[in-house]
Amino acid sequence: MVDSLGAPISGATVRVVSQRPLQATTTEAGAFAIDSVPVGRVELGVRRLGYAPATFWAVMTPGVIARVTFTLAPVAIELPAVSVSDTLAHPWLRTFDRRRRAGRGYFFTREDIVRSQVEATTDLLRRVPGVRIVRTRWGTPQVLFDRGGPSGTPCVPQLFVHTMTYMGLVDDFSPDDIEAMEVYNGISTVPVELQSAQAHTCGAIVIWTREPPPVEKKVGR
Predict the structure, then answer these.
(1) Overall pTM > 0.85
(2) Which segments within 50-157 are labelled E, that is strand?
(3) Which of 28, 95, 121, 158 has the fewest CB atoms within 10 Å, i.e. the most exposed one?
(4) Are 205 and 183 in contact (CB under 8 A)?
(5) pLDDT digit string (tens) for 126-168?
């Protein structure tokens, strides 16, 4: 699965239209595999946030692995009007809005968080493909990205609060504390400005709190 420039698209859902249980999610390399596909001419549907939904046809032959390349066209996502007022009320969210328009990750607005009615922030992350919540040896929830590493291996994402790295846990912040959140479940989708701050190669989670970020003050002599 590639975009119009030939770059691989990860996180796209590919399904056999006539057989709903048969589906797969593309890897960081844009690859996918679906077993037990019916023989003959088969229609495949593809969906990915930030791209126009598409359907493709492939001819399946018994005992033969079909290799196909699909190209998805990017599409502009119209933001709800409330997002504009949110940005005006919270000017530090302009970065969040800019990245959301790029459509390379998963994004939660304040309205999404309220609508979800979750009690813990990790419960919200369970809705993102490729995210798994495990328990640490101390019993606290830990976020893992199933294929977030450079070779598609599980890894612990880097956590950011506003623009600063944060060494704690996601659940240090309750849903009531969060105005918006960004989730990049693979290193290839992480914005460049966050990659330079990462100590390891994995995806990233960015939390934007409902209070403005602290301003560094310079004290003169």
Answers:
(1) no
(2) 54-60, 106-108, 131-135, 141-145
(3) 95
(4) yes
(5) 999 999 999 877 788 889 998 766 666 788 899 999 988 888 8
